[in-house]
């Protein structure tokens, strides 16, 4: 049984008085332990797809099954629980909380799940090369540093599914390689299932499988 499966998944956005399709029918399956890259031109629907799969937005049509639940049939509170317990999300625009420090942003993700915030936070910050940025707020950090905080926040709870929207998009090659190596290690050593959007062919090469999208659908697997 795949851990994630979609059937004819659709999403349209309302622009003024008309509806514009962003996803026109996505059928996909991801097995537990797979590391999947999603590629395709800007505007083809990659982020939209990830937001639906992560339970952040509602589909306009079709179905999503994840780890024994049908997400498209769950009420909002059920979806919120799955997001909290099982999904780690690295957003294209980070979505760090502006009033909290790097450390605070990671701790809050653990507190929300009722996990103790312990030395693990310091450890992961150091591992991400942020040992001396622990007390900085997002606006006091570079874009690449904020990106690394967002990644640390997503992986600290060991989610069942890790989703990342262009996680290396703002990083120099050293930091980019460090993140990719970490994703690969999580995948190989811990069987972490990963879905990663990328424009970077080096990043896609780290994955075990690539889905290519165009015009709101998957055109190549
Ligand atoms: N909230 C929204 N309201 C209206 N239209 C939207 C919204 N979000 C996305 N779209 C549109 O849906 C389409 C798909 O957007 P999406 O963000 O999924 O693309 P993407 O493949 O992630 O692109 P990029 O590589 O530039 O991040 C685009 O045409 C975009 O303009
Ligand atoms: Mg996007």
| Shape by Cα distribution | globular
Query: How many individual β-strands?
Result: 10
CATH class: Alpha Beta
Number of domains: 1
Give the quaternary arrangement of the chains.
single chain
Cα radius of gyration in angstroms? 17 Å
CATH homology group:
P-loop containing nucleotide triphosphate hydrolases
Class from secondary-structure proportions: alpha/beta
Shape-level CATH architecture: 3-Layer(aba) Sandwich
Q: Compute the number of helices.
A: 7
Could you describe the largest sheet, including whether it forms a barrel? 6 strands, mixed
Average the pLDDT over all residues and give the rounded result: 92
Bound ligands, each once: adenosine-5'-triphosphate, magnesium ion
- The CATH topology is given as Rossmann fold
In the sheet with the most strands, the strands line up as 6-7-8-3-9-10
Amino- and carboxy-terminal Cα gap:
18 Å
Describe the structure.
- With 221 residues, the protein is an alpha/beta fold.
- It has a single domain (4-220), classed as Rossmann fold (3-Layer(aba) Sandwich).
- The protein is 34% helix and 28% strand.
- The chain contains 7 helices and 10 strands.
- It has helices at residues 46-53, 76-86, 102-112, 119-127, 143-155, 173-190, 201-206, and strands spanning 4-15, 18-30, 35-39, 61-66, 69-70, 87-90, 161-165, 193-197, 209-214, 217-220.
- The strands form 2 sheets. The protein has a 6-stranded mixed beta sheet, sandwiched between helices. Strands 2-1-4-5 form a 4-stranded antiparallel beta sheet, covered by helices on one side.
- β9 (209-214) and β10 form a beta hairpin.
- The protein starts with a strand and ends with a strand.
- The site of adenosine-5'-triphosphate (ATP) has 11 residues, from β1 and α1.
């Amino acid at each position: 049984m795949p851990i994630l499966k979609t059937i004819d998944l659709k999403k349209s956005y309302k622009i003024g008085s008309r509806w514009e399709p962003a996803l026109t029918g996505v059928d996909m399956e991801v097995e537990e332990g797979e590391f999947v890259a999603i590629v395709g031109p800007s505007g083809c629907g990659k982020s939209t797809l990830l937001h639906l799969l992560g339970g952040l937005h509602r589909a306009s049509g079709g179905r999503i099954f994840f780890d024994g639940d049908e997400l498209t049939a769950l009420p909002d509170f059920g979806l919120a629980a799955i997001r909290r317990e099982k999904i780690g999300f690295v957003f294209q625009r980070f979505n760090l909380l502006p009033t909290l420090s790097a450390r605070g942003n990671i701790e809050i993700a653990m507190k929300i799940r009722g996990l103790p915030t312990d030395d693990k936070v310091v450890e992961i910050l150091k591992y991400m090369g942020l040992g001396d940025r622990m007390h900085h707020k997002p606006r006091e950090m570079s874009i690449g540093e904020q990106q690394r905080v967002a990644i640390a926040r997503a992986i600290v709870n060991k989610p069942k599914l890790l989703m990342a929207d262009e996680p290396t998009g703002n990083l120099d090659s050293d930091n980019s390689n460090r993140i990719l190596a970490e994703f690969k290690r999580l995948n190989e050593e811990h069987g972490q299932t990963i879905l990663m959007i990328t424009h970077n062919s080096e990043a896609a090469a780290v994955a075990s499988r690539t889905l290519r999208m165009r015009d709101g659908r998957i055109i190549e697997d």
